[in-house]
């Protein structure tokens, strides 16, 4: 028994393997809560749980990941989902309303989870500070917005909501005549002063009450429970005696409270644990007790509760004795998100025995003791020392024992302790290396009496640096100790090159760096405590403050060109109109593919994919799968009635037949009655292989084996001769890693066979309905007109759903055709990442010629990208890369060769930017190195070589309306670049182990599809008798605001309010032969098609308007109907004048491949920690030329989202494969995208004023892709900071830093005595590659 949104739910036979998420979505049909990852890493599934807490004697509310919480664990609790707090049918909750008004929802898939995280915070703290708001969102991810507008919306709930952070500089005090602006997060782009126009203020007294029945029956928490499912039995004992008895009876049973570890094992990996015991209701295990000597913490103490208790103890007893507790608090801040901290327990952290546990090193270093109990024997105390974790994922617990508690001693006089960790992402990430260090001195001296150093990430278990701990005893805490400890620790931790987890050199350097940080920390405390010795130097003072300072909440500005004063109120073009679906997205009412209600006879499909990257298929055995519960059928290539060959350039097959060419290639599919049954049956399919060699996985492998899909040349002038004549010639190379799309909604579809004339209907999350329609028809061997594809909306796309949808849609079509029943297939996050491809990795070897004054004379550039196992769009990606290889610079002589590599990894595909960001990035790399070679500021070199109005590009296109110099100058001015650059240099001189860098980067991005025939669009506009308008076009809505922009265009053309226009969905039965929604042209081509359709309609109505000019719109339409005038029109548009004559053998190229260019510039300032490689983005300023923006709020949201996505590409995200070709980085646990904490501290976006663009609808410009590359300003700012660090180590000259600039690369490129970097950068990168 539990409650959901105030409604009692009674489930007589609950299934222990069913999660709360599955239950509320499938049984209760509350689909607002989303499945994003299945491992508690994205927050899309967040709900609020409320319960009566006996210890606190009150009702408590906490957020949880419903994808991990078993539904049986909800007994006696009240669950609140996004549907339970507000609705468009009643009214929106204040959280929902403000998020919608602040444009904080784009694709909307992550939005319900974000809403519920904030809602839960408000239920516990109605007026939170920004630190609390940021902390509450640590467990949520968003791939669209860049986080800034979400933080802005939620800032309005904070204590500072009544004052603008800009103070006297607030835009309200100084209104601009030519722009509207948002100075500070409180204001919604300051369009209509909407921070004062909320329909409601937040009133915590109006929240729903806790169900009284659960208060009356709160004693039920003392009742033990047992639930028996299909495969699993779940026990909930309520006493320690019951718990230990069960554990002795079932010694292999897992003890589960938060299910944060086992939930991933069962849900994601498909494992089964027949007996689960939860000690969550055993009160003897949730205590926290203190005495004069230390603290005892019960094994079932919830981490979030523990944080509050530890804070109280620290405040009560003071800092010195509680240093171990302060270390725990610091580590718990970075541990996961609130959703995990609210259910995870300290015993789970210990007993999972993770080698990168954040807490176990603290326990080991402080001398903690664990208490176990065996039912038949009693208690046993075990010191948490080197023997406690005997091997990987093992503890010294005996069979049948239960962990009762852990006891930590308080620190004594002259004793100091601190913990450290470093991860790939600052928040909600597992550690690469963590450490806890403790030292005790002889009283009144600096002489070491005791020393402990425990590390995670340096072995298969958490370990003590025993050699160091022995040798340091008796030593004075002086500077000469550092080099000795470095030597001892290298002996303690000598990692092999092939050590699991990689990053060997970096991990060793981190261990040493952590000791050095601890050394400085203790040295400072000794001086403050009056112990003789030197104070730490001023340049080392920086290590005492958090990276980037104590800062919460960004102060940001957004500006744009104001619409004319005489523009009619109903004409919304140029105004910041909220997203078309913003309100239904914040309430969870927005429907995505997997939210479509199930059909009565619907089946579920699970793909069977290859486990080998290059092999012959010798046998597929489905016998065991056929006996699995719920099994219906198995489909493979033999069931394809049409063509098994599919995809772009017909390079894919629906099902592999006799050979597989990558891990994850689809071999077949299991169809079953439920999602869970399909998964289980698919795991029972046995495939036998015979490996084929060589395995070609990387670009280097392809070069070695001459494995290419294509080779192309692009030339102008005589590059080789110009190189010889140049004053200077610079040679370099660069690698740019791929990037996972990580759209929050995975690829999926629902296929419905009509069983009449071969018709079939497909609901999909594709960006490209027309190609899905084509591929389905070819697979079935039927005409295209019998296939209808419908797309309501996408939960993000970014190019990943432009072509690779076929890996799921085609098998589902075959399965539905075979079964004659609807088939649903939604990929898991892990499978989606494995099989659907990523952004292309690139490699470049270049030579650049230039004069002594910095003028470029020649470029020879050999570019390679990794296409994967099919060509897909890789050749087109390379073409765009070559066309952008000039960056923004005029080079008289150019020779570019582009080769697309054929490899044995999943086929890479389109991703926002489509090859241009990689190529632009390479260009900025050689610009930076030219500046370094000449000793010139990089900005100067960029300005000297930047194109000018009327210049011709290396592919023959003349640049007109070239606004880049304006963007560049305005960005430098708005950011106070020169002044801040001087301050950065001053900061770097004063600080040794923290450095700052600042960089300004321009961009030029060509707008159009590379394939000319794709530059067309259609639209269909219906006007109904009541005057309402139904608008249909060929584009799909994936959060980019395409629908609202086309509505605004139609509104302007028809002269009616946007409220009278509606877009239902995208369908191949209304607008045929559509181009994919991609290439940043969605608004351009579909908007023009809509405009043309509206123009046709208004032409028909013109005479009626002249006859009766006073008639209202509704009267006009009724008159037209009565006069039998058609109120339906199609519109069509094709982009004019574009062409490209490119001979890829000779390299000659002329024409106009792009309709126009979008320009921009960005300045970013970064601070790095030279000892760990960590960094923060202090400030980013962007100026973009978007012509006359159709919707400034939407466009600014696109700029911010693209920038943060690009930031991930260049600074954080790095897909990794093993030597067998299998992707290691699957799911948010292993693959890190930027989180809320990675948003620039100050994030300012300005749209260039007084710009125009006659080649697009209403003088606007495409915006989706161009801003992404501007995040290179962060990369080169970080590189500048690294350069400053290298100077301190007497390392000068050019150096190589590939992308992404991960913490590892930044740290190792800094180069100091802790990195053991006696090798060249080239040797370092060889180590990284290995």
TrEMBL record:
Binding residues for substrate: 802, 880, 914
Statement: the UniProt record of this protein carries the keyword Lipid biosynthesis: no
Domain named 2Fe-2S ferredoxin-type: residues: 1-85
Catalysed reaction, written as an equation: hypoxanthine + NAD(+) + H2O = xanthine + NADH + H(+); xanthine + NAD(+) + H2O = urate + NADH + H(+); xanthine + O2 + H2O = urate + H2O2
Keyword terms, alphabetized: 2Fe-2S, FAD, Flavoprotein, Iron, Iron-sulfur, Metal-binding, Molybdenum, NAD, Oxidoreductase, Peroxisome
Named cofactor requirement(s): Mo-molybdopterin; [2Fe-2S] cluster; FAD
Subcellular location: Peroxisome
InterPro entries assigned: 2Fe-2S-bd (IPR002888), 2Fe-2S-bd_dom_sf (IPR036884), 2Fe-2S_ferredoxin-like_sf (IPR036010), 2Fe-2S_ferredoxin-type (IPR001041), 2Fe2S_fd_BS (IPR006058), Ald_Oxase/Xan_DH_a/b (IPR000674), Ald_Oxase/Xan_DH_a/b_sf (IPR036856), Ald_Oxase/xanthine_DH-like (IPR016208)
Cited PROSITE patterns: 2FE2S_FER_1, 2FE2S_FER_2, FAD_PCMH
Ranges where the FAD-binding PCMH-type domain occurs: 227-413
EC number: 1.17.1.4, 1.17.3.2
Molecular function GO labels: 2 iron, 2 sulfur cluster binding; FAD binding; iron ion binding; xanthine dehydrogenase activity; xanthine oxidase activity
Principal localisation: other
Cofactor note text: Binds 1 Mo-molybdopterin (Mo-MPT) cofactor per subunit.
Residues given in the record as [2Fe-2S] cluster 1 binding sites: 37, 42, 45, 67
Binding-site residues for Mo-molybdopterin, renumbered to this chain: 767, 798, 912, 1079
Residues involved in FAD binding: 255-262, 335, 358, 403
SUBUNIT field: Homodimer.
Membership in a protein family: Belongs to the xanthine dehydrogenase family.
PANTHER family (UniProt xref): XANTHINE DEHYDROGENASE (PTHR45444:SF3)
NCBIfam families in alphabetical order: xanthine_xdhA
Entry protein name: Xanthine dehydrogenase/oxidase
């Amino acid at each position: 028994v539990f409650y959901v949104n105030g409604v009692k739910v009674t489930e007589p036979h609950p299934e222990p393997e069913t999660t709360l998420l599955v239950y509320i979505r499938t049984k209760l049909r509350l689909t607002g809560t989303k499945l994003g990852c299945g491992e508690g890493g994205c927050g899309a599934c967040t709900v609020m749980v409320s319960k009566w807490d006996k210890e606190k004697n009150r009702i408590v509310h906490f957020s949880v990941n419903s994808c991990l919480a078993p539904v049986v664990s909800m007994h006696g609790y009240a669950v609140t989902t996004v549907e339970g707090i507000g609705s468009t049918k009643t009214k929106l909750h204040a959280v929902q309303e403000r998020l919608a008004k602040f444009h904080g929802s784009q694709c909307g898939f992550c939005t319900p989870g974000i809403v519920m995280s904030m809602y839960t915070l408000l239920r516990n703290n109605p007026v939170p500070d920004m630190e609390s708001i940021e902390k509450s969102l640590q467990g949520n991810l968003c791939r669209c917005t860049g986080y800034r507008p979400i933080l802005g919306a939620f800032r309005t709930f904070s204590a500072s909501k009544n004052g603008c952070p800009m103070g006297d500089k607030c835009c309200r005090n100084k209104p601009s005549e030519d722009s509207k602006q948002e100075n500070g997060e409180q204001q919604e782009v300051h369009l209509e002063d909407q921070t004062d126009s909320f329909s409601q203020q937040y009133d915590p007294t109006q929240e729903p009450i806790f169900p009284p029945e659960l208060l009356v029956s709160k004693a039920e928490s003392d009742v033990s429970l047992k639930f028996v499912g299909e495969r699993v039995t779940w026990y909930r004992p309520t006493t320690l005696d019951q718990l230990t008895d069960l554990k002795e009876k079932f010694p292999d049973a897992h003890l589960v409270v938060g299910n944060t570890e086992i939930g991933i094992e069962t849900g994601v990996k498909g494992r089964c644990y027949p007996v689960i015991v939860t000690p969550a209701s055993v009160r003897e295990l949730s205590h926290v007790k203190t005495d004069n000597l230390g603290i005892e913490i019960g094994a079932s103490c919830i981490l979030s509760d523990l944080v509050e208790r530890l804070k109280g103890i620290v405040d009560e007893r003071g800092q010195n004795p509680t240093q171990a507790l302060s270390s725990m608090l610091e580590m718990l801040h970075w541990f996961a998100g609130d959703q995990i901290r609210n259910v995870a327990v300290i015993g789970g952290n210990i007993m999972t025995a993770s080698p990168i546990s954040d807490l176990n090193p603290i326990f080991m270093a402080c001398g903690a003791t664990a208490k176990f109990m065996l039912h038949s024997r009693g208690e046993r105390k075990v010191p948490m020392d080197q023997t406690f974790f005997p091997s990987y994922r093992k503890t010294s617990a005996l069979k049948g024992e239960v962990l009762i508690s852990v006891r930590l001693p308080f620190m004594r006089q002259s004793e100091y302790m601190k913990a450290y960790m470093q991860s790939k992402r600052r928040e909600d990430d597992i550690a690469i290396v963590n450490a806890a260090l403790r030292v005790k001195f002889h009283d009144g001296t600096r002489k070491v009496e005791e020393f402990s150093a425990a590390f995670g990430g340096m072995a298969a278990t958490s370990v003590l640096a025993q050699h160091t701990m022995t040798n340091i005893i008796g030593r004075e805490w002086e500077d000469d100790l550092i080099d000795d400890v470095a030597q001892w620790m290298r002996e303690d931790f000598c990692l092999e090159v092939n050590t699991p987890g990689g990053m060997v050199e970096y991990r060793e350097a981190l261990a040493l760096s952590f000791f050095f940080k601890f050394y400085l920390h203790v040295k400072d405390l000794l001086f403050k405590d009056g112990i003789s010795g030197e104070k730490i130097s001023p340049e080392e003072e920086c290590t005492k403050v958090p990276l980037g300072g104590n800062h919460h909440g960004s102060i940001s500005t957004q500006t744009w060109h104001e619409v004319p004063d005489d523009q009619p109120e109903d004409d919304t073009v140029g105004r910041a109109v909220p997203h078309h679906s913003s309100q239904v997205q914040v309430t969870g009412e927005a429907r995505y593919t997997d939210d479509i209600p199930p059909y009565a006879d619907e089946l579920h499909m699970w793909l069977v994919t290859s486990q080998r990257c290059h092999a012959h298929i010798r046998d597929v055995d489905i016998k065991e799968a056929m006996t699995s519960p719920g099994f219906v059928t198995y489909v493979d290539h033999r069931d394809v009635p049409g063509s098994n060959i599919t995809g772009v350039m017909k390079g894919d097959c629906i099902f592999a037949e006799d050979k597989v060419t990558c891990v994850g290639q689809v071999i077949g599919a299991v169809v079953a009655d439920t999602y869970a049954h399909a998964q289980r049956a698919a795991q029972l399919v046995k495939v036998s292989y015979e490996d084929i060699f060589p395995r070609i996985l990387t670009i280097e492998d392809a070069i070695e084996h001459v494995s290419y899909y294509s080779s192309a040349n692009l030339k102008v002038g005589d590059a080789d001769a110009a190189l010889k004549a140049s004053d200077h010639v610079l040679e370099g190379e660069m690698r740019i890693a791929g990037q996972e799309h990580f759209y929050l909604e995975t690829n999926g579809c629902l296929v419905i066979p009509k069983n009449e004339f071969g018709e079939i209907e497909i609901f999909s999350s594709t960006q490209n309905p027309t190609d899905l329609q084509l591929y389905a028809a070819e697979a079935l061997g039927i005409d295209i007109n019998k296939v209808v594809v419908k797309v309501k909306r996408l939960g993000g796309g970014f190019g990943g759903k432009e072509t690779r949808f076929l890996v799921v849609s085609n098998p589902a079509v075959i399965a539905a055709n075979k079964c004659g029943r609807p088939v649903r297939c939604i990929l898991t996050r892990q499978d989606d990442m494995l099989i659907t491809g990523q952004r292309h990795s690139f490699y470049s070897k270049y030579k650049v010629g230039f004069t002594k004054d910095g003028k470029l004379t020649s470029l020879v550039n050999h570019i390679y990208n990794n296409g994967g196992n099919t060509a897909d769009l890789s050749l087109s990606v390379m073409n765009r890369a070559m066309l952008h290889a000039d960056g923004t610079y005029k080079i008289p002589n150019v020779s570019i060769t582009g080769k697309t590599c054929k490899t044995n990894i999943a086929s890479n595909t389109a991703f926002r930017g489509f090859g241009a960001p990689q190529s632009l990035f390479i260009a900025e790399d050689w610009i930076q190195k030219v500046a370094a070679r000449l000793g010139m500021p990089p900005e100067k070199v960029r300005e000297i070589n930047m194109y000018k109005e009327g210049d011709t590009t290396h592919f023959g296109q003349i640049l007109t309306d070239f606004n880049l110099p304006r963007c560049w100058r305005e960005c430098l001015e708005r950011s106070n670049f020169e002044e801040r650059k001087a301050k950065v240099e001053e900061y770097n001189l004063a600080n040794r182990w923290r450095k700052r860098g600042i960089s300004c980067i321009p961009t030029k991005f060509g707008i159009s599809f590379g394939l000319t025939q794709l530059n067309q669009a259609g639209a269909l506009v219906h006007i109904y008798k009541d005057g309402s308008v139904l608008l249909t076009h060929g584009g799909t809505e994936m959060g980019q605001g395409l629908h609202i922009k086309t509505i605004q265009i139609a509104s302007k053309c028809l002269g009616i309010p946007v409220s009278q226009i509606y877009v239902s969905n995208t369908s191949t039965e209304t607008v045929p032969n559509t181009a994919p929604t991609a290439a940043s042209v969605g608004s351009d081509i579909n908007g023009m098609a809509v405009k043309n359709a509206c123009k046709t309609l208004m032409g028909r109505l013109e005479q009626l308007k002249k006859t009766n000019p006073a008639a209202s719109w509704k009267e006009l339409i009724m008159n037209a109907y009565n006069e039998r005038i058609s109120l339906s029109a199609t519109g069509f548009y094709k982009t004019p004048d574009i062409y490209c004559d490119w001979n890829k053998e000779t390299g000659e190229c002329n024409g106009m491949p792009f309709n126009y260019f979008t320009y921009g510039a960005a300045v970013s300032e970064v601070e790095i920690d030279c000892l760990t490689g960590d960094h923060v983005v202090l400030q980013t300023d962007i100026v973009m030329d978007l012509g006359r923006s159709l919707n400034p709020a939407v466009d600014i949201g696109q700029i911010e989202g693209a920038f943060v996505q690009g930031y991930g590409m260049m600074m954080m995200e790095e897909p990794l494969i093993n030597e067998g070709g299998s992707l290691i980085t699957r799911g948010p646990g292993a693959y890190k995208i930027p989180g809320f904490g990675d948003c620039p501290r100050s994030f300012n976006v300005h749209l260039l004023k007084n710009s125009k663009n006659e080649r697009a609808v209403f003088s606007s410009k495409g915006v989706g892709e161009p801003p992404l590359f501007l995040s290179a300003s962060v990369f080169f700012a970080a590189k500048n900071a690294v350069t400053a660090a290298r100077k301190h180590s007497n390392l000068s000259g050019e150096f190589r830093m590939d992308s992404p600039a991960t913490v590892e690369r930044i740290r190792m490129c800094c180069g100091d005595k802790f990195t053991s970097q006696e090798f060249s950068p080239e040797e370092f990168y060889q180590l990284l590659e290995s």
